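Researcher: Structure prediction, please.
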Amino acid sequence: MIALLQRSRQVLARFLSKAPYRRILYIALLCGIALVDYLHAGQVRRTFVFYSLDDGRESLEDRMLPKTPSKEAGIRQYAEELLLGPADPGSALLFLPETRVRSLLYRDGVVYLDLSEQAALPGKTGGTAAVHASALPVTPLSAAPQILLDGEGGECFWNLYILNAGIRRNFSFVKDVRLFIFGNEAYPEKFAEIFRKNDKIT
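Model: Predicted structure follows.
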């Protein structure tokens, strides 16, 4: 055993005596430390959709968020991050800054999310998101834009749709999202129609 240890020390000493090998070892150690730190941090990537203040076009943001102890906590974290708004000052808030998550429940694949009454008021898009909605491609995050523009509640409805679709996109185990504003369910029939179309598209 002693002879083996001595032999190992000699091999390591010869390895470290060469500068290129030392650099490789240092890089490997730094990469290992970074990997351990990342795994210890336990972060997950989430995608958010906002809109440009200039032309109302989609603006995607990827954020690394801490892992949560439960699915329900993760969804709530996502909703609260969306309410905080974009990191890019050139993008608009979907909801007024005063908007809060009143409650969130996840049961059997269904999310029940209740927002404060401020969610019913226009956000900071200046209406540009709704105006340019028809120009967006038909994707899981922007399907059936004409349905969104039909009837009352235009901008409020569009912003709720982005929240709804964002939860579905980021949490594949979610089967349905029911949104409420101060205890009143918001547009259940319209959301059902839109996501039925999405299911056919995807």
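Model: The CA atoms of residues 137 and 143 lie 7 Å apart.
Researcher: Thanks, that helps.
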